[in-house]
Amino acid sequence: MSGNNFKTLDDIGEITSRRVLVRVDLNVPMADGVVTDDTRLRALIPTVTELADKGAKVLLLAHFGRPKGEPRPAFSLEQVVPALARILGREVTFLPDSAGQIMAEKTLKLPNGSICVLENTRFHPGEESNDSALVEQMAKLGDIYVNDAFSAAHRAHASTVGLAHALPCYAGRSMERELTALDKALGNPEHPVAAVVGGAKVSSKLDVLQQMVEKVDHLIIGGGMANTFLAARGVNVGKSLCEHELADTANDILAAADRADCTVHLPYDVVVAKEFRANPPTRTVNVHEVADDEMILDIGPAAVEALSDVLKTCKTLVWNGPLGAFETPPFDSATVALARTAAALTKEGQLLSVAGGGDTVAALNHAGVADDFSFVSTAGGAFLEWMEGKPLPGVEALNQK
Question: pLDDT-based confidence at 113, cuts 50/70/90?
Fold first, then answer.
């Protein structure tokens, strides 16, 4: 994936009175009709305001939840409109469908510079199957298509791929930033490159680990998956979360890393407890001293210090997944400490740091350093598939032209 194969808003030309269909991510968490996290809404501000200020009719396309191809009031995007209007500081209107001739006539009558949210694309059964008839009906609503939803780029849907083939297509500002950052991090990175891969299970990140050993100089493994690697090396991990059945796979990955000259970093001291809850009695021990009735819940301070030293030798860092059970204190210590080191190195201009995935964003926010990383992706599945080296249909569609 190279950063230069797609057109951006800079290439769009005169758009006054043109209808621009912008695929955005409005799939935000809500409680009692109120948006509880507006990160994704804030991400669309640059694209939407730029288009509106140039006199375009901005039509926002998005999915919300899983309504299974039929209109269901609980999944209506109308409920997101007030929060979006507040964040944009502008009037935002709503149209009760996202396809068809009647809506097309309504979009033509919208004033220049207006912003309008269209109803949930997944109310149409053809959205997820990228049905050509639906694409044709959706395309009637606009003159130009802009994709600004990297987080939905791993889905080959009508609103992410179909429209890119049906109308002149461009990457929005958020998509452009994301693709440029990702290209710098793994497409054409400055070496040495380190990757932090954490999380509970090796099975969910197998493809990522296999891809990373080929691409990075240092692979730092944390979270529950580190236990699986330790166990594969003959370490007794007590009653820690561990996929013992994947020992052969873990050893294969370690062997592949050796062949590729990639150094794999596993913790040599760990924080253990006999029960998993907030602030239980804990001990910090060498990995070879874990008792049968204890579980490893975080990486120890000596290992964190060594990993900090590794980062100081690197130019690029890709981070996906926490090092320990960070939601439960005190097992957030290692993640917070290493994240703060990475943030400090980034601020000094020594490190390009890119992070992504839901847990990772939460962990960096918890450490108070999300704003200090070079780039933090709000995408979950799309970020993971990008790390796995898989082509993302929504990005490929933009590259077609």
Answer: very high
